[in-house]
Write a structure and sequence with these properties.
Blueprint lengths: L8 E8 L4 H10 L2 H8 L4 H22 L8 E3 L5 E3 L8 E8 L2 E8 L3 E7 L6 H8 L2 H8 L4 H22 L23 E6 L5 E9 L5 E8 L4 E7 L5
Parallel strand pairs: 1-10
Antiparallel strand pairs: 1-5, 2-3, 4-5, 6-9, 7-8, 8-9
Helix pairs in contact: 1-3, 2-3, 5-6
Length: 243
C-alpha cells in the first residue's frame, strides 16, 4: 500500500504506454467490463493498447493508495466529464487526474486538492496558426512570434498548451473556458518551480493554482496544476517507484 499523501504533496506517476506484453496483460486483467468494451471499440491496435495501459495503470496506482483491489475502484464523472472516486472507496479525499498522449501517460494525485495533468508530444501542426489564434492569448502569440526557430516555437506552444489543459482539468472546466482567457506566457522553467496563477471558472469563481512544468521524456511537454501554491511534487515511474 502506498504511503498516504500529505496535504502539501502532489504525486505524479509517469507511465510508459509501450510497456512489455506482461504489463499489457496485467492492465487488461484489472479493467472492468465497461472499460474493456471501450478498449474493443478502438479501430487501431496501437490506440487500444494505449488505452488499456493508461487505464489499467490508473487503477493499479489508485489501488496502492486506497488499499483495495484495482477492479473494485468505481468512478463518478462530473457533468463536464472530469472523473473522480465514487464514495465510499478507501478514502474520499484522494483526488486524481489522468492524461495520455503518444506513448506516455501521467497520473496526478493530491489529498483534498483539485489536480489536473496534461502531456503532449512536441511536434509541428499543419494548422498551427489557426490553433494558435484559437487557443493562445495575445501575450502567448507574441512570445511565439519572437522564438528563434521553428523548433523553439513548437516547444513553447506545447508548454503553453499543456499548462492550460492542466489548469482547466484542475478546475473541472475542461475546454469549456475560452483558452485565450487563460494566460500562461511565462518562460519554461529550467528547474522545477511552481508558478502561481489565478483563473476564473465557468461560473466566474476564482481559483488560485500552482502550475509546474514536467519533463516526462524526450520530445514531450507536460504540466501539473493543483489547487493552491503551497505544495511540492514527487515523480514516480510505474510500475516501479520514486524517480
Amino acid at each position: 500500500m502506498q504511503p498516504p499523501l500529505a496535504h502539501d504533496t502532489v504525486h505524479v506517476w509517469r507511465v510508459s504506454l509501450a510497456g512489455p506484453a506482461q504489463q499489457l496483460r496485467a492492465c487488461w486483467a484489472v479493467l472492468p467490463d465497461d472499460e474493456r468494451a471501450r478498449a474493443r471499440r478502438f479501430a487501431f491496435a496501437r490506440d487500444r493498447r494505449r488505452f488499456i495501459m493508461a487505464h489499467g495503470a490508473l487503477r493499479q496506482v489508485l489501488a496502492r493508495y486506497l488499499g483495495v483491489a484495482p477492479r473494485a475502484i468505481d468512478f463518478a464523472v462530473s457533468p463536464r466529464g472530469k472523473p473522480s472516486l465514487r464514495v465510499p472507496v478507501g478514502t474520499a479525499v484522494l483526488q486524481f487526474n489522468l492524461a495520455h498522449a503518444g506513448e506516455v501517460a501521467l497520473i496526478g494525485l493530491a489529498a483534498a486538492r483539485a489536480v489536473g495533468v496534461d502531456v503532449e508530444p512536441v511536434r509541428a501542426l499543419s494548422d498551427g496558426l489557426a490553433v494558435a489564434e484559437h487557443a493562445l492569448s495575445v501575450a502567448e502569440r507574441t512570445s511565439l512570434a519572437a522564438a528563434p526557430s521553428a523548433a523553439a516555437t513548437w516547444a513553447a506552444f506545447f508548454w503553453y498548451w499543456t499548462r492550460k489543459e492542466a489548469i482547466l482539468k484542475a478546475t473541472g472546466d475542461g475546454l469549456g473556458v475560452p483558452l485565450p482567457q487563460v494566460d500562461v506566457a511565462w518562460p519554461a522553467q529550467t528547474q522545477a518551480r511552481l508558478q502561481p496563477i489565478e483563473v476564473l471558472d465557468l461560473s466566474g469563481a476564482p481559483h488560485r493554482l500552482g502550475v509546474l512544468d514536467l519533463r516526462p521524456g524526450p520530445g514531450y511537454a507536460a504540466a501539473v496544476a493543483v489547487d493552491g501554491a503551497d505544495w511540492h511534487s514527487t515523480l514516480f515511474s510505474w510500475p516501479g517507484g520514486m524517480v
